[in-house]
Amino acid sequence: MSYILVADDDEILSEMVRHRLVTVGHEVHTVEDGEQCLEALQTRTPDAILLDAMMPVRSGMETLIALKSDPVHARIPVIMMTSRRSQEDVLAALRAGVADYMTKPFSPEDLALRIEGLLARNRFVAGDVRMPHSLH
Questions:
Q1: Where are the domains of the chain?
Q2: Example GO biological process term (predicted)?
Q3: Could you say which DSSP state residue 128 is in?
Q4: Between β-strands 3-7 and 27-31, what pairing exists: parallel, antiparallel or unpaired?
Q5: Which CATH architecture has domain 3-125?
Q6: CA-CA to 6 of 20 to 30 Å: which in 55, 103, 110, 126?
Q7: What is the Cα–Cα distance from 72 to 38, expressed in whole angstroms?
Q8: CB–CB of 51/37 below 8 Å?
Q9: pLDDT digit of tens for each residue in the chain (136 aa)?
Q10: Helix count (H) and strand count (E) of the chain?
């Protein structure tokens, strides 16, 4: 089981993401903006962060830049979830350090598979070669 932090101001999407990831065995904490995301890191470090690009208080890009500039949290993999589809937006997020970029709308199954792949890669790099969770 991995601990996933989801930062998105869309309650319906956050709940859909939370439900899908809990169903496949993850612990999920949701917050509504980038500032709350950074605050949540002070109490517990997640295995991955799902980050909406457009949020109130602090945008996803601002949050990503703050995360990646902090040596304590820079290695946390981040998946950007956004309706922004332009090549410019995708490249800016990749340059800032996202591990993956998903455009909305997306299927919960696609998200779960991407999370599993991301977590499996991180476990492999860390030397922990356990089999990933079943998605069924």
A1: 3-125
A2: regulation of DNA-templated transcription
A3: -
A4: parallel
A5: 3-Layer(aba) Sandwich (3.40)
A6: 126
A7: 12
A8: yes
A9: 899 999 999 999 999 999 999 999 999 999 999 999 999 999 999 999 999 999 989 999 999 999 999 999 999 999 999 888 888 888 999 999 999 999 988 888 899 999 998 898 887 777 765 555 544 4
A10: 5, 5
